Amino acid sequence: MATTPTVLPLNADFTAYRILLPVKDKEFVVGIHNVEAGKTLCNANLDCCGNLLSLLTGFEHIVHERMKQSSDVTTFVEELKDVLEHILIAQPQVKLPLAEFYVRIYSEIEEIGWEHVAWIAPNFMSIHLRFFDEAKREHLVQIQLSSDYPEREPSCNADLPIAVEVQWRAGGRLKDILSQFEQAAEKFQDFWIVMEDIDKHVWVMEPEHPSRSNCFRRIALGGHCSLCITVEPLSPRVLPEYRFFGSDTSVDPLRQRMSSNMDCWRMERLVRENLEDLLDVTFPSPQDSNRDDVSSECIICYSYRLLDGKEGASERGSVPDRVCDNGSCGRPFHTSCLAEWLRSLPTTRQSFDVLFGSCPHCSHPIVVKCSIS
């Protein structure tokens, strides 16, 4: 490859040029048009090849400024070469694996079987392996390899309720990783039985799309009330952490039943069955429930999740965390929505950071603590 630029005029008027520009073991093709003799290149147009265009993204203003200040094409070519050298020096250098790396990965995949490969990157440095547990659930193990694998431990991840700490030794193999995740998955069989039973038989308000790593469920109880539980993955049939959400007049009886019947909890039963027995209720299900009765959207903004710009994901963001204490109402609100609503009313009173007003739905007295503007 040549080390100096080649400038080729495309016409007899010398108003257009084709340039072959070698920079740091790379060669770029550049076209320059509308060159005016005896003038700077301020009115000239630059035409770049695809890879050069991508490389100059974000630096266009620098190139245009250098072009305006250049008195002729040769000067600009040297300026452009200088810009490209600085860009290429600043780029992180990717260390590509040796041929032995690819031979080893291919051999290890052959060892575990290609049926276990769900996806593999073109450079073989990222691999998703699949396996099925005893209940025929499919699991994916995401593996990120380094160029000096297997001396350096790979980064591994799977959708499990407790992260697996991979035991790695130099010279380890992909089958060792897969085996460790298979063994870890066996520990959570009863946990997934418990969670799948909940997801199948009750109206789960959160998370909207449960994954196998989610230990939390918010269960609709009806009457704008809900029960939040967090199940212990390694002891899924013990009484989970729980919290009721709803008006005090609606949830106080439920709290009392839970406390009074705690001795009736049976470890051989599923969490859902125990909760229904202790609370003396049958949880609503999506098939036989009125959506209005279990609705949890804020009645002010008509949304469930209130994204604040920092969250950005559908599974995140603040949810209604305040309800009307009127037992015949019990409508939910986002605290921020309720505070904004009350501030807009002339009848609202404020004492320090507490607002005193009326429920937007039933006009029952309501109090909300908010930040002082």
Automatic annotation (TrEMBL):
Entries under CDD domains matching the protein: DRWD-C_FANCL, DRWD-N_FANCL, ELF_FANCL, RING-CH-C4HC3_FANCL
Domain Fanconi anemia complex subunit FancL WD-repeat containing positions: 3-85
BP-aspect Gene Ontology terms: DNA repair; interstrand cross-link repair; protein monoubiquitination
Database matches in InterPro entries: Fancl, FANCL_C, FANCL_d2, FANCL_d3, FANCL_d3_sf, FancL_WD-rpt_cont_dom, UBQ-conjugating_enzyme/RWD, Znf_RING/FYVE/PHD
Residue ranges of domain FANCL UBC-like in the record: 100-188, 190-286
A GO term from the CC aspect: Fanconi anaemia nuclear complex
One GO MF term: ubiquitin protein ligase activity
The FANCL C-terminal domain, residue ranges: 296-371
Protein name as it appears in the record: RING-type domain-containing protein
Source organism: Physcomitrium patens
Gene name, Swiss-Prot/TrEMBL: LOC112275811
